[in-house]
């Protein structure tokens, strides 16, 4: 098998079986010699007009609804206690407060817990930690079932230590970025969907975007955004959810807006200054 076949195509398009099991593919964005990618295509005039009309219609409807007369109601009684908020837990259940290898752990044995686990595991498996041998081993042991982790660790080590692959994405033999450049590999979940739940097993899809590339002057692999959906098969074991397998597919990807790309310095600063999130449903 050639190196390009092993990693899912040449030209920095990606590589196979990274962070997954079986026939899983993890693909990375295409590299480009033009910093921060080629110019976006100009949207068609008709599509732009339809979008504008749609926004205007929504605004008119919102204004009409707001101006409708309603029967005055007495204000609710005052309370001595301010309302409790859990901004990172959309359903009101607080996120977990324990970690393993820096990854949130101890999710409850229910649908919400499985979805939260899948989202956090997607973040870990898509992080730059997978390019460091010590951190990679800790991540794999923390998110996979023990027997799956043992079976796959060697394969993952070979993939992430492959010299041709590392050179193609601009990293040295140790997975480090050249001096003056910042390596960025970050997964940003947008939402999760429960595909199947059986008490001690679950299948959860995670829709997410990724930022991947090298930020800095002279980068030949500028940071680019891509969109994917991973479906994780999870099993409940020893008081937590673990991955038994997952598959990946492209998209759904939204239409990009005509926004100016950030400079290399702005991108590197943003990633270093804005920390990641704990994802809880």
Give the biggest sheet.
4 strands, antiparallel
Backbone CA Rg: 22 Å
Instruction: Count the domains.
Output: 1
**Shape, per Cα inertia axes:** globular
Structural class comes to alpha+beta
What would CATH call the architecture? Roll
Strand order of the largest sheet: 5-6-7-8
What are the low-pLDDT stretches, counting only 5+ consecutive residues below 50?
Answer: 1-26, 30-76, 82-90
Number of strands: 8
Share of β-strand residues: 15-25%
Oligomer: single chain
Helical content (DSSP H or I, runs of 4+): 25-40%
Distance between the amino and carboxyl termini: 42 Å
- Residue-averaged pLDDT: 76
* CATH fold title: Nuclear Transport Factor 2, Chain: A
Q: Can you write the helix and strand succession as a string?
A: HEEHEEHHHHEEEEH
What is the C-level CATH assignment? Alpha Beta
Specify the number of helices. 7
Question: What's a concise summary of this model?
Answer:
The protein has 281 residues and is α+β, with helices and mostly antiparallel strands.
Describe this protein's structure:
Mean pLDDT is 76; it is low at 1-26, 30-76 and 82-90. The protein has helices at 3-6, 45-67, 111-125, 133-143, 146-160, 163-168, 264-273; strands spanning 14-16, 25-27, 98-100, 103-105, 182-197, 201-215, 224-237, 240-250. By secondary structure, the protein is α+β, with helices and mostly antiparallel strands. It has seven helices and eight strands; from the N terminus they run αββαββααααββββα. The protein has a single domain (3-36, 88-273), classed as Nuclear Transport Factor 2, Chain: A (Roll). Strand 1 and strand 2 form a beta hairpin.
């Amino acid at each position: 098998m050639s190196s390009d076949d092993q990693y899912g195509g040449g030209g920095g398009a990606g590589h196979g079986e990274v962070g997954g099991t079986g026939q899983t593919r993890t693909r990375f964005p295409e590299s480009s010699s033009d910093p921060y990618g080629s110019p976006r295509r100009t949207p068609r005039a008709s599509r732009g007009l339809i979008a504008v009309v749609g926004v205007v219609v929504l605004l008119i409807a919102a204004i009409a609804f707001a101006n409708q007369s309603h029967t005055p109601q007495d204000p609710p009684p005052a309370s001595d206690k301010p309302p409790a908020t859990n901004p990172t837990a959309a359903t009101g259940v607080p996120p977990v407060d324990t970690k393993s290898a820096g990854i949130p752990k101890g999710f409850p044995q229910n649908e919400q817990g499985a979805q939260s686990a899948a989202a956090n595991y997607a973040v870990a498996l898509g992080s730059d930690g997978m390019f460091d041998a010590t951190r990679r081993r800790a991540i794999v042991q923390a998110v996979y079932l023990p027997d799956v982790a043992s079976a796959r660790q060697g394969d993952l080590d070979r993939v992430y230590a492959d010299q041709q692959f590392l050179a193609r994405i601009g990293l040295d033999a140790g997975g480090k970025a050249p001096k003056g450049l910042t390596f960025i590999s970050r997964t940003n979940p947008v939402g999760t969907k429960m595909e199947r739940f059986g008490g001690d097993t679950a299948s959860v899809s995670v829709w997410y975007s990724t930022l991947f590339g090298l930020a800095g002057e002279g980068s030949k692999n500028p940071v680019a955004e891509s969109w994917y959906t991973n479906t994780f098969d999870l099993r409940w074991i020893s008081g937590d959810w673990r991955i038994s397998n997952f598959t990946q597919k492209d998209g759904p990807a939204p239409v990009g807006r005509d926004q100016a790309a950030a400079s290399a310095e702005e991108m590197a600063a943003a990633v270093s200054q804005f920390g990641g999130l704990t994802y809880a449903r």
